[in-house]
Amino acid sequence: MIKLNVSKSLDSVEGKINLRLNLQIEKGQFVTIYGESGAGKTSTLRMLAGLLQPDDGEVYVDNEVWFNKQNNIDRAPQKRKVAYVFQDYALFPHLTVKGNLEFAQTTKDTAYLEELILKMELGELINRKPATLSGGQKQRVALARALAQKPEILLLDEPLAALDIKIRLKLQEYLRQIHQEYNLTTILISHDLGEIIKLSDRVFVLEKGQIIKSGSPTEVFVDQQISGKFKFTGEVTKIEKQEVVYIVTVLIDQNVVKVIAQETEINNLKIGDKVMVASKAFNPLIYKIDE
Amino acid sequence: MNRFSGKISKIEVNGSLSLVTVAASERITIKTIIIETPETAAYLKIGNTIQVLFKETEVVLGLNQKQAISLQNRINGTIIQIEKGALLSKVVIDTEIGSLVSVVSTEAIKELNLEENQEVIAMIKLNEIMLSE
Amino acid sequence: MDWAPIILTFKLALVTTVILLLLSIPLSYWLSISKSRFKPVIETLVSMPLVLPPTVLGFYFLLAFSPGNSFGVWLNEWLGLKLVFSFTGLVLASVIYSLPFMVHPIQSGLESLSTTLSEAAYVMGKTKSQTLFQVLLPNIKPSILTGIVLAFAHTVGEFGVVLMIGGNIPGQTKVASIAIYDEVEAMNYGAANFYSIVLLVITFSILLTVYLVNGGYLKRFWK
């Protein structure tokens, strides 16, 4: 359990903001911090990692004090058992992929490294330098390197933002797997609603340094709770009228789906809007695909 | 999407399925089957006000009250408007609980001789109805 | 021909460069991360030799280290250091004189690295010095090489400081640049020419190496 109750005044591009956070994260949860740039998302992660000192407050993790202003406790980042995937990946340019992974290990564990290399499909890359890798490959290495530390808490600062949709989807799958498999508490910064809904148990919405909303992704992002179990979020790409109905084309991940709608439903809908498509679990047919 | 508000009057649970009866008015009840139970969904409480949602295309129209059909959700009303397309038509029905829209084939309209001011029964399958807070 | 001044020059440059390297790494590191109020003062002091006439520096060294004043006497009595007109004094003066040539490239190299590199290493449990030696320095090899070469070449070329504090003692403080001056004074143009050509060729080669390496031509061999 992470208890973060801190304040920090920050100089952002849009002027001074006062970051005032009070949040609790259960062990093993996948949590997303969502908000505009300059809202204090990265600073939140940095304060948790010990890379940024709060002005006041306290941080407890599993009842251990990591930071306490009053008692002057500030545990060094080296001793916090967190792994941090930076926005720019921060791979060490002078080391090979393998060298990067090995460097992250406090105690050598070759079998575990082999496992990570296999899992993240890095086998062909291990002797390459970061400069020769593509964005998606770098991201996989950064993720594997973070896991090589065997952290208890994994901090991800918009790790997938710069990648194209196909690689993003694949890496989202990796994230979900490793979160479950390694029993991590994962904190992700993300802008992508689909990603958030797919991955996280809980969302904190940050605005100008304050948490204005929190809850499960559907609680936070969908105004209504709906009982339909066949639910996806996507983006409207086309709206066309056919006879007495409208056909709305929605891009969900990489799939284009079409939904029949009435005028009342499309009234405030425009192309590019994020939507939730819901149906009852009773309706879809299911087919096995022969591979 | 057709949307009506009502109060939950009955919840029958079996495993992870619930058969929920919603009273939209004194005479009209709408039943739905959902994969939720009062334990998994907080809104499942007797007396709770809830929205019933179903698609226009899932509304079946009938003329005779005595028809032997498995559809239990039946709402009586009067047709107030028919908008015909080549293949599909939109039928607006005035009911005790408000306007209800059905989209059926234009051919069916012809076959049943449906016209404005006619009394009809709108029917919806149990599994086509969603609940929303 | 007397090779002693040439050999002495390179001995001085070598010793100076080694000391400078050891001194500049922590100093540059501190300058690259420090937010101290004293940082601008230190930076100014480091850069002074760039603009100050070498004779000014030499003059004050001479005054400070002279056995005629108490500091010079203290040095001599307590540390056994005789800095005026000695090789040790020459090394000390050269270290200060060439300091910016070593510090500046290393400092700007360190500053060009993303701070997330250090932070990533800290989160991995590495101490600051582990991070410096295992992450930062290996990634600024070209800057370090530039610093080494510039400091070396600059020491080879110094004259004013050496003249003031070192004098002209053969085998001790008579470096090539002094020897050239000496030979010209004595109208021995042939000898002056010899020293000059040797210095010219060597410094040219050294600088060329720097440009080649940092231009990327030698990068693959260096790495």
Mean pLDDT of chain A comes to 88
Count of helical segments of chain B?
1
Largest sheet of chain B: 5 strands, antiparallel
Tell me the overall shape of chain A: globular
Name the helix and strand elements of chain B from N-terminus to C-terminus, one letter apiece.
EEEEEEEEHEE
The CATH homology group name of chain B? RNA polymerase II/Efflux pump adaptor protein, barrel-sandwich hybrid domain
- The proportion of strand residues of chain A reads 25-35%
Report how far apart the termini of chain B are: 15 Å
Give the H and E element order of chain A.
EEEHEEEEHHHEHEHEEHEEEHE
Secondary structure layout plus pairing:
The complex is a heterotrimer of chains A (about 290), B (about 130) and C (about 220).
Chain A: E1 2-12, E2 15-25, E3 30-35, H1 41-49, E4 56-61, E5 64-68, E6 73-74, E7 82-85, H2 97-104, H3 110-119, H4 135-148, E8 153-157, H5 165-181, E9 185-189, H6 193-199, E10 202-207, E11 210-215, H7 217-221, E12 230-242, E13 245-252, E14 255-261, H8 263-266, E15 274-279
Parallel strand pairs in A: 3-9, 3-10, 7-8, 8-9
Antiparallel strand pairs in A: 1-2, 1-4, 4-5, 5-6, 10-11, 12-13, 12-15, 13-14
Helix pairs in contact in A: 2-4
Chain B: E1 2-14, E2 17-23, E3 29-34, E4 49-54, E5 59-62, E6 73-84, E7 88-95, E8 98-105, H1 106-112, E9 119-124, E10 130-132
Antiparallel strand pairs in B: 1-2, 1-4, 2-3, 4-10, 5-9, 6-7, 6-9, 7-8
Chain C: H1 4-33, H2 39-51, H3 54-65, H4 70-79, H5 87-112, H6 115-123, H7 128-136, H8 141-157, H9 160-166, H10 176-185, H11 189-214, H12 219-222
Helix pairs in contact in C: 1-5, 1-8, 1-10, 2-5, 3-9, 5-8, 5-9, 6-7, 8-11, 10-11
